[in-house]
TrEMBL record, chain A:
Residues 5-137 form the Nucleotidyl transferase domain. The gene is EIF2B3. Pfam families: LbH_EIF2B (PF25084), NTP_transferase (PF00483). Acts as a component of the translation initiation factor 2B (eIF2B) complex, which catalyzes the exchange of GDP for GTP on the eukaryotic initiation factor 2 (eIF2) complex gamma subunit. Its guanine nucleotide exchange factor activity is repressed when bound to eIF2 complex phosphorylated on the alpha subunit, thereby limiting the amount of methionyl-initiator methionine tRNA available to the ribosome and consequently global translation is repressed. GO terms for molecular function: guanyl-nucleotide exchange factor activity; translation initiation factor activity. This is Translation initiation factor eIF2B subunit gamma. One of its GO terms (cellular component) is cytosol. GO terms for biological process: cytoplasmic translational initiation. Residues 341-432 form the EIF2B subunit epsilon/gamma LbH domain. Its main location: cytoplasm.
UniProtKB/TrEMBL annotation, chain B:
Residues 33-45 have a biased composition (Basic residues). It is found in: Cytoplasm, Cytosol. Component of the translation initiation factor 2B (eIF2B) complex which is a heterodecamer of two sets of five different subunits: alpha, beta, gamma, delta and epsilon. Subunits alpha, beta and delta comprise a regulatory subcomplex and subunits epsilon and gamma comprise a catalytic subcomplex. Within the complex, the hexameric regulatory complex resides at the center, with the two heterodimeric catalytic subcomplexes bound on opposite sides. InterPro entries: IF-2B-related, IF_2B-like_C, NagB/RpiA_transferase-like. Acts as a component of the translation initiation factor 2B (eIF2B) complex, which catalyzes the exchange of GDP for GTP on eukaryotic initiation factor 2 (eIF2) gamma subunit. Its guanine nucleotide exchange factor activity is repressed when bound to eIF2 complex phosphorylated on the alpha subunit, thereby limiting the amount of methionyl-initiator methionine tRNA available to the ribosome and consequently global translation is repressed. Keywords: Cytoplasm, Initiation factor, Protein biosynthesis. It comes from Astatotilapia calliptera (Eastern happy). This is Translation initiation factor eIF2B subunit delta.
Amino acid sequence: MELQAVLMAAGGGSRMTDLTYNTPKAMLPVGNKPLMWYPLNLLEKVGFEEVIVITTKEVQKAMSTDLKIKDVKMKLDVVSIQEDGDMGTADALRHIQPKIKTDILVLSCDLITDVALHEVVDLFRAHNATMAMLMSKAHEFTETVPGQKGKKKTAEQRDFVGVDKSGKRLLFMANEADLEDGLSIRKSIMRKHPRMLIKTGLVDAHLYCLKKAVVDFLTENKSISSIRGELVPYLVRKQFSKTVNSQKLKDDTDDQTQEKNDGPLLISSRDEPLLQLAQERSCWNDHRGDMSEAYHGGKLRCYVHIMDQGLCCRVNTLAAYIEVNRLAPKLFEEPSVHPSADISERCQMGSDSIIGAVCHIADKTSIKRSTIGNFTTVKEKVKVTNSIIMHGVTIEEGCNIQGSVICSNAVIGRGADLKYCLVGNGQHIEPEGKSTKNSSDRL
Amino acid sequence: MADSGVIDGPGRKDEIERAKSEGKDLTKEEKQRLRKEKKQQKKIKEKKDDKASQENEKEKKPVTSAAPASQPPTQPTVQKAPSAVPATAPVSVPASEASVPADKPTKTKAELKAERRARQEAERASKQTKKGETGQQAATSKPKAPPSDLQPVVKRLPEHIQVDNPDVLKKLAKKLERQQIPLRSDYGYKVSLFSHLHQYSRKAPLTQQLSIPSTVIHPAIVRLGLQYSHGIVAGSNARSVALLHAFKQVIRDYTTPQNEELSRDLVNKLKPYISFLNQCRPLSASMGNAIKYIKKEISNIPSNCKEDEAKNKLLNCIESYINEKIILAGVAIAKCAIEKQKISDGDVILVYGCSSLVNHILCKAFEKNRKFRVIVVDSRPRLEGKEALRRLVQKGISCTYVLISAVSYILPEVSKVFLGAHALLANGYVMSRVGTSQIALVAKAFNVPVLVCCETYKFCDRVQTDSFVSNELDDPDDLIVTRKGTTPLEGWENESSLGLLNLVYDVTPPDFVDLVITELGMIPCTSVPVVLRVKNVDQ
């Protein structure tokens, strides 16, 4: 077996609490499919047969009833963990360490992408890398976010990513929050890679290929709790550390404690003698101009594949959620109207709207650029534009909904006029209510 | 090698065609029957041809197609000796070998052509009559090394040089489909002289069409295929070592299924892997020989051997093969070259590209305190010379670096030329990186000795006299160069009359090579068939 897939679906969605306080993030509907269906679909298309899903009990229950997830043909091995939120992604990996037999591909449940996975995995295979990850050029979100008064831009922490000349080898990774005085790069790195491109406009897709030895390393180092926050920067730094590169490991007594910590990583990175021989005899080098051998003799290598075309989105904010609802349906060739929906003939429906199952759309309604979930009822003379309506919502007559997000089981009274609003789960909006840029999520 | 599927005789061909036309795979019984018939036919042919060799020895005169008339009368006298023939065959062979040089100058090209034509006629005739009439055949066959080669062989062309033939492509596609391996499609416009070869693009790797946790093909082989197609493992020795390492992993992970024998099943398991690697990058001669060796070792495993024992035995075989044929051979060649004063003080040695063996020799000579300097000649687009330069300078050898266009300028300074080889062909031609024949030619013009260093496991029994028939086409996009931000050749696919050609190998005739240094000693280029024959007899 070459790779085992691990899907992290226990995240809380801390940056979009309006949406997630009732529905777990993994089950939020995007284009009428649960969010975690998208990474599962990606894995299934590529040829995986088994996935280990790490999630909470709540999500596990919801998964067992959801039709789309039942459609997934892969074998899902669901591991449930406590929902107290203290367990980081690396802790979760440590938890399932007994199940891990080979190298792993870790995915986050909020990743929606159409990347050709072989690009990432090929880097991992060809260079015998310890880690390979996926990143994408970030796009600005243009839609107005409901519930936000004014165009308030939250101060996003930037990521500084340093890659080498070819754009594939990862040399440097740091978050703005960790850099207090400024960005400092070690001289040894500059000596080995004199040309480094530092990019800030990249989105980390949270898709990692990790060697099995990294999981073993995690079991010994219990201090690392998050893959993205701690493990990845650690591995990137370790590429150039002296203990990994020096040959005389057993002589220095001072380094022994260090060696114990890094033990599993180092053992994996010491190549077998035949591989060494093949590399010696091969006339290939990844760089030119200095006296060192291929990879500068480094055994630990981290690679990144940067996507510049195609969709790659992480749904962790409201703005991303709205954007993705617009784009995700275009990935699949599915009819925009579910066959079981009951749509009257005098309804004006735009071609980029999606209607879910068992919906009732009455006459004289106009639905443009919107997503309507399953079991929703839309009565007459309703105008829905640019909105996302989740499952089980009832919209009475004469409503005008623009640019809003209406969560499951809400009821919008007659004649209500909502502009850029966020209506929480099970909320009732009074008839003839007028709300603009309001977010009502309190019961 | 690609030519290993040689059809022995017309009878067997009929059998196979019959079975194929029936539309089902040959069952076990049919296979056994075929094998028996093959053996019988071989025996008949051996008798025929040994008669011929004996006749030729006795007569020792140039054999022409006019002679057949005189020979049938002498046949009955010789026919009594068929039983003694197989025993005497090996003995007669060296004698006949000795007679070959004597025969050669007396035969002209036209006579040889006529002989060949007569041979084909004879085959056709014997097919139709199905009698043991050997008159015409015996007359035209030249005494060649092993008795089996005396038969008029209709060699089947390997598929990798028939890419412009749609039938061959269809067959290949079917075979790959059966083995569940994706077909890699050719890329770009091919120059017409080389349109019979595959040309792939590095940007479209074969893994695009494979499932990601690859189940059909062992992950070690997928990794190896990727490394081949990206050029991370390049160079004849490196590729063979990496291949054997991957095979070791395959063998370690292998379990014999029920009702199957390891000796037969493992070979069948390896076949799709080899096709996959071939699709990633055409196999080299050294890899082909290594694969032949492994297949032989696997089939020689006795059936009563337990699985663990068998696996250990195979792993040890691989280890010893690498040790003997590559590592120790390299050491022996270096010793040979240094002790026989092929590298002496004050020498100026020219090397081309990056040959692991030549680099090894030079480094060892430097360690033994020989005073020499090296001129490294390099060529685009691979620029492998830079890597060779780095390795030599790291050791402390003083080097000069030139591009191949400056070879005639630099040659007056040079005292010896050391070249590495990808393979040595049976007619003495040296197959090596493109540009080697140029260097050998210029060196010959300047009367500079050319020494080729090659281990014996790279000797192959293929014959080639030009670089067109069988070669490898690399990715044409490698030739596109960016100068100061502009890439003039970027849209080359849109130009209908423009083709980019990126050849990998070329062949150097034996007249330009003065000596071949192998672990068996220093031999002239033309002794390659002798070495091959000795190896075959050993096995």
